[in-house]
Amino acid sequence: MADQINVTERSRSPWPWIIGVIVLAILIWVIAQMGTNDNPDVQIDVPAPTAPADTGGDTGSGGGTATPPEQ
Fold it and tell me: Is the backbone of residue 62 left (phi > 0), alpha (psi -120 to 50) or beta?
């Protein structure tokens, strides 16, 4: 019975492993690209900042425009 067992080694090709690793790397790259939102083609219009409105009150800046109090 022992003479019927085939113990010769077969060499297996590494190409399926190489192709599998390449496909896995591409898949990881595609998933990572789906998560980023850095598309330079998209332009979002944001209004420019404006200066604060003048309320007309004296802020005490020493500009000399306030009249002295009457006595």
Answer: left
Q: Is 60 left (phi over 0), alpha (psi -120 to 50) or beta?
A: left
Q: Report the greatest alpha carbon distance in the chain.
A: 127
Rounded Cα–Cα distance for residues 58 and 66 (Å): 7
Residue position matching structure tokens 């090709």: 13
DSSP 11: P
pTM for this prediction:
0.40
Q: Would the pLDDT of 61 be above 60?
A: no
Instruction: Tell which residue, 16, 38, 15, 19, has the closest CA to residue 27.
Output: 19
Please determine, for residue 62, whether its predicted confidence score (pLDDT) is greater than 70.
no
Cβ within 8 Å of residue 65, ≥6 positions away: 58
